[in-house]
Write a structure and sequence with these properties.
five-stranded mixed beta sheet, 92 residues, alpha+beta
Length: 92
């Protein structure tokens, strides 16, 4: 069984107003990745996602090649796991 990791991502580009967050929710749920995603005031989208390395790679690949989505840059860092977290949702 692959080890779970948690990452905090920041997406730059045309990522607000194009269905990016809902694409992330759909893809994360299909991959059994937990976490959340939200828009920031500066036009970026922040996401925390928890799953295997392969699942997180698949998640990023899926959401960054969406129609109308243009990701200029993705930054991430590993952060501590959230034990007992279930599901993936949009944060307000």
């Amino acid at each position: 069984m692959s080890k779970k990791i948690r990452r905090r991502y920041i997406f730059y580009g045309t990522v607000q107003g194009v269905g990016f967050r809902y694409r992330a929710v759909y893809a994360a749920r299909a991959l059994n990745v937990t976490g959340w995603v939200k828009n920031e005031w500066d036009g970026t989208v922040v996401m925390e996602a928890q799953g295997t390395q392969e699942d997180l790679d698949d998640l990023i690949s899926s959401i960054t090649r969406g129609r109308f989505v243009y990701v200029d840059e993705v930054k991430y860092k590993d952060i501590p796991l959230e034990n007992g977290e279930y599901g993936f949702h949009v944060r307000g």
